[in-house]
Here is the input.
Amino acid sequence: MTDALSTTTKGHTSQPPVHIACIMDGNGRWAKRRGLPRTAGHTAGEEALAAVVRAAAQRNIGWLTVFGFSTENWVRPRAEVRHILGLHRKLFGRIDEMNQNNARINWIGRPFDEPGARTPVYVQRAIRKAMADTEHNTGLVVTVAFDYGSRAELVRAARACKDTDSPIDAETIDHKMYAPDLPPVDVLVRTSGETRISNFLLWQINGAAVYFTEKTWPDFDSDELDRALKLVRSN
Ligand code: FPP
Here is the structure.
């Protein structure tokens, strides 16, 4: 396995690990500009994400959390949804690559057995396998939000609080999030010139810096990642 420190970009080793979250917008526009179908934009988006994972691992980023598919995205045309699901299987299948990057795969979203949850069984399997096959890695934690909505996460947390004897405070709510170990977000990125937050990590982005860029997600690269990092790091 590659030693994370030996591949770390100069200057980043001394920096504390940070949590970067990305709303990966603009795949459709990227494709349209090239006269390609929207699905080609999503394919390019998945490849861009794989490259960002490599870049993040080299920059001592502790956590990279990405919005892969939202609870609202199911209304998209069926063929597009099928394509995006296939790309999730591809991403969760990048196990050798994740291991080379010492990166652990994680997932957040509506628990598979919860009423209303929609993750198909083949994606569930891919998620479970990716998590199991990368759990020994000690570097970057890559969390993919799939069938995820922040309001659903918060409603579930509120309900779970009702069933505990603990006082209902920020700490208790923290523990009821889908991934209680996920630290607060340091920088939230949204691509493609959109300046909305949408329904992503509303609880966890408290205090985060926000990096908006005109670049569409498939064009988001390591230089862009460095620009986002500048909001919280001095070099
Ligand atoms: C928005 O583009 C993007 C999404 C629907 C979610 C992100 C999906 C990917 C990056 C594809 C693969 C990702 C994973 C995690 C496997 P859009 O279609 O809304 O673009 P538009 O606003 O230009 O139409």
About this structure: The helical segments are 27-33, 38-58, 78-92, 95-100, 121-134, 150-162, 170-175, 222-230. The first helix runs from residue 27 to 33. The pocket of farnesyl diphosphate is lined by residues 24-29, 42, 45-46, 49, 66, 68, 73, 84, 87-88, 91, 144, 192, 217 (CB under 6 Å).
